[in-house]
Amino acid sequence: MGVTNCTLQNQDPVLNECAARLGVSLRQTEDQLTRDMLAATASFINCVGGQNGDNPTEITRSDVDAIVRALLNNNAYTIMDNIEGEDKFGTAPVRDAYFALCSTQLTGNLDAVAGFIQKNQYPSPMNALRSEWGSIGNLRFLISSIGSFIPNSSSSGQNVYNIFCVGMEAYACIEQDGYSASFIYRPPIYDGPLALNASVGYKFAEVPRITNDLWVLNLRATLA
Are 133 and 97 in contact (CB under 8 A)? Predict the structure, then answer.
């Protein structure tokens, strides 16, 4: 009968927490860089169907239909498959959809759009993403507190919110020379006055870029 050796490990809870927090910071930094790239380079369409008298207006169903029609005409592939209807109270089937990436500030306006389906009304809510707010037509809206907006830039001085409507493979993050993100930890050295403190951090080198200008459109809206 063989003998198996087991190495006893003591996981440092402080270092584990630092690693978790730095992981969130890393991915959020990547999101912010991608957000700023899309805001600076993607073609945009202003919402015009709203009633707030601004330019652009608040988002409406006609604006959603216009952006979906543009993506379809540009042969953009949808990202998410449809969710078939089921015999469940208060649910509705969900179409195959593009992603719409936007700010959490837009949630109230999205709720008011004709045909909006909250993700808890999906026949299979487990198919919804954690950041997903709901769907309108062929758009499924993903919200973030760091969603893109341009302050005081509407015709009446309101913030203009960017809603990036993207199809499959519309943009990508390219690692520079295969330089993937790395987590760095340097332990303290107790043999002198120099290097007494530990350091921990991450580094990465990548460039976000649009791969096909026809497959990503920025739908710009103000608040109602």
Answer: no
Identify whether the C-beta of residue 61 lies closer than 8 Å to the C-beta of residue 113: yes
Mean pLDDT of 93-107: 96
- Other Cβ atoms within 10 Å of 208 Cβ, number: 18
Ranges 94-108, 132-146, 166-180: which has the least confidence: 166-180
Q: Are 143 and 119 in contact (CB under 8 A)?
A: no
For residue 80, the SS3 value is strand
Residue 67, token pair as written in the block: 């952006």
pLDDT digits (tens, 9 = 90+) for 86-97: 888 889 999 999
**Cα–Cα distance list, 2 to 7, 53, 184 (Å):** 16, 79, 38
Rounded to whole angstroms, the Cα distance separating 139 from 159 reads 22
* Distance (Å, whole) CA 54 – CA 69: 23
- 109 strand-pairing partners: none
Residue 47 and residue 221 in contact, taking contact as beta carbons nearer than 8 Å: yes
Which band of pLDDT confidence, cut at 50, 70 and 90, is reported for residue 188?
confident
Tokens standing for residue 207? 């460039």
Q: Is 44 helix (H, G, I), strand (E, B) or coil?
A: strand
Q: 8 is written with which tokens?
A: 């006893």
Q: Whose structure tokens read 């959603």? A: 64
Q: Is the dihedral of CA 43, 143, 122, 171 positive or negative?
A: positive
